[in-house]
Amino acid sequence: MQTKPTPIILMVLITTVSLLLFTPSVSHASDTHSKYKGVMVDDWYDRLARCETGGNWKHSTRSYTGGLGIYRGTWQRWSNSSSAKGKTAMQQVQVADAIAFKGHTEPNGEYVYPVGVFGWGCVKNNAVLKAMICKSNKPLVRRWHNRCNK
Question: What are phi and psi of 70, to 5 degrees?
Fold first, then answer.
């Protein structure tokens, strides 16, 4: 004789599956900086790349370059190269970190301040990516928390 699951059991099952699918991963494996050595955990860059370019680190269009979908003019200003072509994912993350979190110094000595992460459509419109920014306790990231409620 088979018994049917009760509505409470079904609700618990649905809630558990939803949390697994839509909550940022908190496992130690995804909480590392070993792959990209970035400001954010590796999982954040992987998610951003999947959202922006389907995870294609060799992405190249007339307007955007690299796996993180950086506008070419922005890439040129922040990397002193014309595109992300030939750059590793780690090198692309270093440029993205300069743009978003660290800033950089121009060859003439002028310091260019970081512009934050909310220029990426995926960060603005993806609840998981945004939550990972808004919950970060890293000082370079916390400075952008004022945009979390917008």
Answer: -85, 135
